[in-house]
Give the backbone structure.
Amino acid sequence: MRVVLDTNVLVSGLLSASGPPAWILEAFMAGDLTLVFDSAIRDEYEDVLRREEFGFAAADVDHLLAALDRFGLLTAAAPLCPHPLPDPDDEPFLAVAAATSAVLVTGNLKHYPVAATGEVVVQTPRQFIEAIRG
């Protein structure tokens, strides 16, 4: 299953070893999910994860980014959003999800109003885990 993770989910998954964001990262590391991203998303992941405010060990960030580069799916997505999102920085996540038929998982549903998401399934980490566990 293809998934686009909003950066807040990635951060949450590293901050706490339990809970839906961590379970999503574990599923990716186990090869059960394919994380999809473009170069803008990849750059944002690295920039945010390396911020001192989070205190992530450089080795942990390096390990996650290496796994992303090796096992994730780097794609090019055309800009979309005929209905702009509240935060333009969120548009690459929606564009990649739309281009690859991936589920977009975010901790901020309000950033992705239904009118702007079209056919893209947008879920919270908990909703996503519940959906895949059935």
Notes: The beta strands are 2-5, 34-37, 73-74, 103-105, 122-123.
